Amino acid sequence: MKTIILAASLAALLSACGEPKAQCGVYAIGPNQIKEFLKENKAEPAPGRTEKAKLPADFPAQLIDKEGYYRGMQVFCKIDEAKAALSSQGHQDWGVYELNTEWDKGVYQADDQAYHLKDITTIKQAIE
């Protein structure tokens, strides 16, 4: 019994978003315009954690953590999780995008208990 509990505890510690880190991609949601920008090589990178002093004065306060940083773009481990976020947030004309980073290196869990980008990251591709 102890072995089972220890194995379950270790699995929980080693996983993110309910999956082993090695099985996580990094996906975000955004406007469909990004697809066109990707085709033209003009897509802006996805923003990572940024100190408030480097943000525009009118940046939404609800996106700032208690340490005074923009948390970074929210990301998801699986495509299905990102699609569920699209649905639950009611976005029209938005899609899912794969980002050029690895879950265990480029993602952290913020004070809002969601996963966010640590650093600016380029967008690899749109997911159809």
Order of helices and strands: HEEEHEEHEHEEE
- Strands, total number: 9
Backbone CA Rg? 16 Å
Number of domains: 1
Determine the fraction of residues in helical runs and give it as a percent range: 25-40%
Classification by helices and strands: alpha+beta
Overall pLDDT level: 86
The number of helices is 4
Q: What is the rounded distance between the termini?
A: 44 Å
Shape: globular
Largest sheet: 3 strands, antiparallel
Q: State the strand order across the main sheet.
A: 3-6-9
Q: How much β-strand is present in the residues?
A: 15-25%
Flag low-confidence runs. 1-16
Signal peptide: 1-22
Keywords: Signal
Protein name: Lipoprotein
Could you give a quick summary of the protein structure above?
The protein has 128 residues and is an alpha+beta fold. The protein has helices at residues 2-14, 33-39, 79-89, 103-106; strands at 15-16, 19-20, 27-31, 50-51, 69-70, 94-99, 107-109, 115-117, 123-127. The chain has a three-stranded antiparallel beta sheet.
What key phrases describe this protein's structure?
two-stranded antiparallel ribbon; alpha+beta; disordered N terminus; globular; three-stranded antiparallel β-sheet; 128 residues
